[in-house]
Structures are given as structure tokens and as C-alpha cells.
Specification:
By secondary structure, this protein is α/β, with parallel strands linked by helices. It has five helices and seven strands.
């Protein structure tokens, strides 16, 4: 069973999505990921987006660690219900609505998002079968919604190729943890800026 690693709700078990439709981030990978994000100093007060949220584990971990707001985006009905249970847990512990669940396809959610909405931290943990062109299209839709200094984390199979980063996002790090690879990227400086 997955748990919240640290912060206001540290040690609290998270509800999991029944069945095999989702692939939860292991606690080992989550601990390493958040250790790195803490070193980048991007969580406290951040506006966080968790695309393909599954159980919402990465987003609610951010909420527990002091993110200002978290949007969980998940299209599957069972998974989004689990996201809501985990969001309610964080919202209760923090005493305010930090985490909001959006039951939506990722592409539709980004298409509907107002141009002025910006995120400081974005997680993308798509299903392994999602093909690279589809992931690239989502990254392209996400790019205009990244705040200056934002961090994008893409979690994929260690056998998957590096994402095809759109103009405006540049990879700055990657790390492999067994069968999982994390790619870290940030908004790039556009020509003429």
C-alpha cells in the first residue's frame, strides 16, 4: 500500500486504485523524486498539476509537503474516485482545500484551461502504452501553462525513449530507478527573450 511520505500527512496510507489499470509510483521512487524536488525548492507554495493522476499519489504528496494548490487530472471513473478520497484526506489534514480533482482526459483539460493559468510543478505519469507522439502532444499543450522556473517530471518505463520535448521545454536531468525512469525538464528561454 502506498503512503504519504512526509509533510502534514506524512505516514498516512493512501487509497489505491483497484485492478491493474494503473501503475502506482513506488514509495522508493516517490521518496527519491521528492528528495530531488525539495533540493530544487519547488514544492512550498507551488501550484502543482498531476496529469494521469491514477490514485493522485504525487499530487497529494505535494499537498502534504506545502504546495499552495494541486490539480489532479484523471479520466478513469474508479481512479478519479480514489483521487477524490486521497484529496479529501489532504484537505482535511491541512484544514483547507489544497487538492482539486478533475475527472477529464488530460488533453481536454489542458484545452479548457484558461491561458492565464500557470503551474510551478507538473507531473506526467501516463500509462506505459501511451505512444510517444501522444505524450509529445500533451507536453506541447502543457508548455504555455508553465510558470517561469517551473519543473516538469515525466515518469515512464525505463525502456521507453526520452520524451520528444516540444519547443519551450528543455530536459535538465534524468534518473533511472529499476523499471522506472524519471525525466526532469523546465521551460526553456525562447529565441529573442
Amino acid at each position: 500500500m502506498s503512503r504519504i511520505i512526509a509533510g502534514a500527512a506524512g505516514g498516512t496510507p493512501l487509497a489505491g486504485v483497484p485492478g491493474t489499470m494503473t501503475r502506482p509510483t513506488t514509495d522508493r521512487v516517490k521518496e527519491a523524486l521528492f528528495s530531488r524536488l525539495d533540493a530544487f525548492d519547488v514544492i512550498a507554495g507551488a501550484r502543482v498539476l498531476d496529469l494521469y493522476a491514477g490514485s493522485g499519489s504525487l499530487g497529494v504528496e505535494s499537498g502534504s509537503r506545502g504546495a499552495g494548490s494541486v490539480d489532479l487530472v484523471e479520466s478513469d471513473a474508479k481512479a478519479s474516485a480514489v483521487c477524490q478520497r486521497n484529496a479529501d484526506l489532504i484537505n482535511t489534514v491541512t484544514g483547507r482545500k489544497v487538492v482539486t480533482v478533475h475527472r477529464s482526459k488530460v488533453e481536454s483539460f489542458l484545452d479548457r484551461t484558461a491561458a492565464a493559468v500557470l503551474w510551478d510543478l507538473a507531473f506526467l505519469d501516463p500509462p506505459y502504452p501511451l505512444d510517444e507522439p501522444s505524450l509529445a502532444a500533451v507536453l506541447a499543450k502543457l508548455t504555455p501553462h508553465l510558470a517561469e522556473g517551473a519543473v516538469v517530471v515525466v515518469e515512464r518505463s525505463s525502456r521507453a525513449p526520452e520524451p520528444d520535448w516540444p519547443d519551450g521545454i528543455e530536459r535538465f536531468a534524468e534518473k533511472k530507478y529499476g523499471e522506472t525512469r524519471l525525466w526532469f525538464a523546465e521551460p526553456g528561454v525562447e529565441a529573442g527573450d
